[in-house]
Amino acid sequence: xxxxxxxxxxxxxxxxxxxxxxxxxxxxxxxxxxxxxxxxxxxxxxxxxxxxxxxxxxxxxxxxxxxxxxxxxxxxxxxxxxxxxxxxxxxxxxxxxxxxxxxxxxxxxxxxxxxxxxxxxxxxxxxxxxxxxxxxxxxxxxxxxxxxxxxxxxxxxxxxxxxxxxxxxxxxxxxxxxxxxxxxxxxxxxxxxxxxxxxxxxxxxxxxxxxxxxxxxxxxxxxxxxxxxxxxxxxxxxxxxxxxxxxxxxxxxxxxxxxxxxxxxxxxxxxxxxxxxxxxxxxxxxxxxxxxxxxxxxxxxxxxxxxxxxxxxxxxxxxxxxxxxxxxxxxxxxxxxxxxxxxxxxxxxxxxxxxxxxxxxxxxxxxxxxxxxxxxxxxxxxxxxxxxxxxxxxxxxxxxxxxxxxxxxxxxxxxxxxxxxxxxxxxxxxxxxxxxxxxxxxxxxxxxxxxxxxxxxxxxxxxxxxxxxxxxxxxxxxxxxxxxxxxxxxxxxxxxxxxxxxxxxxxxxxxxxxxxxxxxxxxxxxxxxxxxxxxxxxxxxxxxxxxxxxxxxxxxxxxxxxxxxxxxxxxxxxxxxxxxxxxxxxxxxxxxxxxxxxxxxxxxxxxxxxxxxxxxxxxxxxxxxxxxxxxxxxxxxxxxxxxxxxxxxxxxxxxxxxxxxxxxxxxxxxxxxxxxxxxxxxxxxxxxxxxxxxxxxxxxxxxxxxxxxx
Length: 710
Hints:
- It contains 20 helices and 22 strands.
- It is an alpha+beta fold and 710 residues long.
- The relative contact order is 0.12.
- Helix content is 28%, strand content 17%.
- Helix 6 packs across helix 10, helix 7 (277-288) crosses helix 16 and helix 10 packs antiparallel against helix 15.
- The longest helix has 16 residues, at 358-373.
- It has five domains: 20-240, no CATH class; 271-337 and 447-492, no CATH class; 350-444, Arc Repressor Mutant, subunit A (Orthogonal Bundle), CATH 1.10.10; 507-598, Roll (Ubiquitin-like (UB roll)); 616-699, Herpes Virus-1, CATH 3.30.40.10.
- The strands form five sheets. Strands 1, 2, 3, 4, 5, 6, 7, 8, 11 and 16 form a ten-stranded mixed β-sheet that branches.
């Protein structure tokens, strides 16, 4: 027998040879075989389409501590962006999706802050978390790495030894680099899904966030299709997206009626400061239906910049702008119009001819020209002045507005009519110009540049929508209602997409399998000891009660850390049924099953994994009505230890919390007892804010959510 030193050959993995199209994935092929729950589908998906990256502890055992497997396992899934620039024949750019499987048991961050603030804090800690990441075009995962501890050279993720000094990467350096990777805020996409199918969308960065080929719409559509394919159950997102420096959740709610993420089914999840879905919708309706006539009704001169800006866009629009929603919708429409000089820029005005005869339009033009001829010298006449002078002679007003738009470039004796946009007064101005003038060559109403549109959009946003900078106006009651509505829209940041709602009532597409939603209760523990969402089980139609017990045991042991010693004892309401009884005879092809089981041995060591909120047992009872952590800044009363929002206590978010804080309830009790209020020496966190308290816990959700859409 001949022996050589070459390594043994490994069996080839079945990985998709041709990358999927990023804009249409998964199509008709990518989702084949993914009929089970997320915990099973993710493994199948990675085995079929993922390309594993070499993990440090596997290739360099000497550099890793004594662990059974690495903290992070990484796969790359290649995609191709078809027609990225809209030109045929150009090569399609490649995009790689990185899927990182995080072993929570070995992670430095056990608990999830996103679950904590979205209402899932009572869920048990899952054993696995899956990170879905698309890196920025300017930085690829294979090219980024950790610095060599000896010479400082940047090492690739796939290299285990420095090429300059032959120094081997240490496990600690690898772990530090991995943590930095997960906290990188430049990712185009970063989503987390726990093994139980509950996930969080942390980041979406489109063109404004550094993407070269993909828009925010492209990335969100891909994420939505990926979640559907893998049977993700619920996904939360904290909407703090920005558009041109403005809070997009406020701007989009006013223009469309729901957040930007609502285009993909994300709805109101949990509102900060005890806000409800009804109060959110009422705030949307109140603010978006505010009449523009309130701001234009004043007759005093000089007119304000706000009045001039509103009047400008009312005059430019082909449709009557009545409300704030109309105004901002029109500005957003102009931002998506073709650039100045484009042929389609004049399309909107062409169809208006059918409303009046040619003779009516010509007569209106002649009237406007007559007033312009009466102007002495080369003076400019504003749109408002010209309209006021002509309104009695030209009826109806819609005909006059149309005439003022199409009269630009009209030839008259010894010249033509020209128009310009006055940046200072925010108005359009007209005058008769000699034929040899440069301005005479402009045949249509001047279009605003993109920079001017963005500037005006931000000015109107600050004046009408932003509660911090909202301009004062009358009636006072109307402004107060608008101010409160704007604050509510900004406070509603937590959105949830329920992917599992249609799954609950659908029959399995495969006639040879059946689907059961399994509820588990623990023996020898109170009912509120643990809160478990039901788990989906997909099994053959011929499965028996014995098979069901086996699958339930495996599913919960693999999903939750606290269930590592879990065993099923019996089916509730079917205690007398034999283990060989077919499941289908009891529940049909779909249904709900209640399982009773127990965790063998001493479960004390696993108690820290009972809830995603961690070991701290806080009590929230704020004056706004909040009863749980909502992600806003809080502080604890030094007497009773109950948490309250700093904002509800009259402390601005920009201010530091006080050294000592006593809530109103404790203050009134102390006054009745005739005792001075003060902190008790009982170990309560005197003067500590919840942001500070959180830093003392290991957590998985401390990833900054910076999102720019576009």
